[in-house]
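Progress note, sequence design subtask.
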């Protein structure tokens, strides 16, 4: 049916896609992190009334 080396190929491809998605998410969070923290700070200040 499948050659032994082809059976694990799908797993490797999924792992590479997962790594790529993780890198993109980390890059986005690194770029937008301060802005997100500022938004949460404003929300917290609004909820506590300070």
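Output:
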């Amino acid at each position: 049916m499948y050659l032994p080396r082809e059976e694990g190929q799908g797993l490797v491809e999924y792992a590479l896609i997962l790594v790529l998605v993780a890198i993109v998410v980390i890059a986005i969070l690194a770029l937008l992190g301060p802005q997100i923290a500022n938004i949460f700070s404003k929300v917290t200040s609004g909820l506590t009334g300070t």
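The mean pLDDT is 87. Work on this subtask will continue into the next period as scheduled.
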